[in-house]
Specification:
six-stranded parallel sheet; two-stranded parallel sheet; 9 helices; Isochorismatase_Nicotinamidase
């Protein structure tokens, strides 16, 4: 079952799509990766950071893997694994609540500046912070949104579990897992980098060694990790990016319209699951052409005469159909005439009696 907002988006898109667009030519793509973002137990119904609609994504993502596996050269899961006293958890700070914003200062190389009067008292270990001279202005100010504790490293059951949802279809031999979020002082954002883009994950190396040039993104959450992954993938790495809208959910539903507007503006394709039927791997371009071009497939047409031969074949078929229709009509008329004559003879015999 799809989330109601994503389903509405796809229904509206389908309703107001011009007929010529619905029947558009297939889209041919290169080497692709399906990236399944943060489908972890903490975000499911019994999780401590439950995101509404997250449980509905399991069937949607499984369907994508079942019916469109031929599109993907590799499937990659991203998996958050946070330490208990993480910079994004509200209990890390005194008197804060989920959804609150704290302002944090980082050095230019991404190290967290130690406590200062404008920040609520925290319990982040000192070994993960450094002394900073904030007066010099050689720092970066980051507004950190606070969340419920979730996806705790090495916790594999219960409401804080970081385990990938077991109902998801997986291939333990070929699927790749990219772990992020394991630093106390950095929040995980893009699937490529931790916050501030100075600590890379292994995602780019996994894609590069497979010569991937096209990404399909699904999972959690379109207004957090997914949109930031899209931004970096396009602006910094020049990937072709597709976001499958009805296989994602937002963390905050009020931010979804912003995502629907911003993602295409970034240069990504915001599509629905049904659009995947129109996408083909480039390696099948010749097969599709041969399948569509019967004359070319049988090899009987001289080179350059394919269009003429196809037209002649069409005309011959129409002529045969017209001839068959005429013969059928003549046979029907003859039968009706015979039946009428027989009926008249029978009536005459009855009158004589």
């Amino acid at each position: 079952m799809l989330g109601p907002i994503s389903l509405l988006y796809c229904l509206v898109a389908l309703t107001f799509t011009d007929e010529s667009v619905k029947e558009k030519e297939p889209i041919y793509i290169g080497k692709t990766a399906l990236i399944i973002m943060d489908m972890q137990e903490s975000f499911m119904f019994d999780g401590n950071a439950y995101i509404k609609g997250a449980e509905n994504l399991v069937d949607a993502i499984n369907d994508i893997r079942k019916y469109f596996s031929h599109l993907f050269d590799v499937v990659i899961f991203t998996q958050e694994q946070h330490p208990m006293l993480h910079v994004s958890f509200y209990p890390t700070y005194h008197c804060m609540r989920p959804g609150d914003i704290v302002e944090l200062n980082y050095t230019l190389d991404g190290r967290l500046c130690r406590q200062h009067p404008n920040v609520p008292k925290w319990t982040i270990p000192d070994e993960h912070t450094v002394e900073c001279d904030l007066e010099k202005g050689t720092h970066i100010l980051v507004q950190q949104e606070l969340y419920e504790p979730h996806n705790i490293e090495r916790v594999l059951s219960g409401k804080y579990s970081s385990k990938i949802v077991s109902r998801l279809t997986t291939d333990c031999c070929n699927d790749v897992i990219v772990v992020r979020g394991q630093y106390h002082h950095l929040d995980s954002a893009s699937a490529f980098y931790e916050k501030l883009n100075n600590v890379p994950t292994t995602l780019q190396s996994e894609l590069k060694q497979r010569n991937i040039d096209t990404l399909f993104l699904v999972g959690i959450a379109i207004d957090l990790g997914i949109i930031q992954t899209v931004q970096y993938a396009i602006s910094q790495l020049n990937y072709e990016v597709y976001v499958v809208h009805d296989a994602t959910v937002p963390y905050k539903r009020e931010r979804l319209p912003m995502c629907e507007f911003t993602i295409p503006k970034m240069g990504a394709h915001l599509i629905c699951m049904n659009d995947l039927y129109n996408i083909r791997p480039k390696k099948n371009v010749k097969e599709e052409k041969d399948k569509a071009d019967k004359c070319g497939k049988c090899g009987k047409c001289p080179e350059g005469d394919t269009d003429k031969a196809a037209k002649d074949a069409k005309d011959a078929k129409e002529s045969k159909d017209a001839k068959d229709a005429k013969e059928s009509k003549d046979a029907k008329d003859a039968k009706e005439s015979k039946d009428a004559k027989g009926s008249k003879g029978a009536k005459g015999a009855k009158d004589e009696l």
